[in-house]
Amino acid sequence: MKKFLILAVMMLTTMTVSAQMRAGSWAVMPKAGFNLATVTDADDASMKFGLVAGADMIYQINEPLAISFGVLYSMQGAKAKVKEGGVTIKNKLNMDYVNIPILANFYVTRGLADKAGIQPGFNVKHKMKVESGGSSVESDIPNFKSFDFAIPIGISYEISNFVIDARYNLGLTKLWDQEGSSSKNSVFQFTLGYKIPFGWFQN
Asked: How many of the other CB atoms lie within 10 Å of CB of 169?
């Protein structure tokens, strides 16, 4: 009886793993992590830490290829520190987006995937914070664009339904309308997700 129970558990485990990889299957993946973000074409800009969270919907087309559609709240921006007349001035761009990454996931081996795609994004916050001499002032960034478009490329690894994802989001859209400025988003993103198969959607 004990051997039978062990064999039954092993068979169920194998069936679960196979179902996750089967063509035509769906899964939802809540995820959270952090960004290291900056903006291009700004000599004094450095990376700013921010959080990212949301979920992906994943469709397995065949064993080596899946498509994912996500909605992520992403805290981006940049920071800079300059000295003027012996006074240190800290500038911080706080730019939050709702991003919609759409990626092709190419599985080079079981669990390991290369990914690339497109990412439209919609700005929900654009503030400039200036700190100097113990005081700070925060204001809206003028002429800021509400829409952003980026190319995400990255890699992920899945183990026991947990998915570690690292990607770079290359911004293609100018952040604001200002003569002589061509700054765009540049974001390294790291997340941990948990894939939940939708058994009732599987073929």
From this structure: 24
Q: For residue 194, count other CB atoms closer than 10 A to its CB.
A: 15
HEC secondary structure over 64-85:
CEEEEEEEEEEEEEEEEEEEEC
**pTM score, whole prediction:** 0.84
Mean pLDDT of 142-151: 95
pLDDT class for 135, splitting at 50, 70, 90? confident
Residue 68, φ and ψ in degrees, nearest 5: -125, 145
Measured CA to CA, the distance from residue 25 to residue 199 in angstroms comes to: 8
The pLDDT of residue 199: 64
Q: Which of these, 71, 72, 58, 170, lies nearest to 104 by C-alpha position?
A: 58
DSSP 91-129: EEEEEEEEE--EEEEEEEETTEEEEEEEEEEEEEEEEEE
**Kind and range of the H or E run holding 38:** strand 26-39
Write down the pLDDT at residue 84: 74
The Cα–Cα gap between 83 and 115 comes to 41
Residue 21's DSSP bridge partners are none
The Cα 37–Cα 185 span in angstroms is: 7
Give the integer Cα–Cα distance in Å for 128 and 18.
50
- Contact assessment for residue 184 and residue 37, using Cβ atoms and an 8 Å cutoff: no
- As a whole number of angstroms, the distance between CA 133 and CA 79 comes to 17
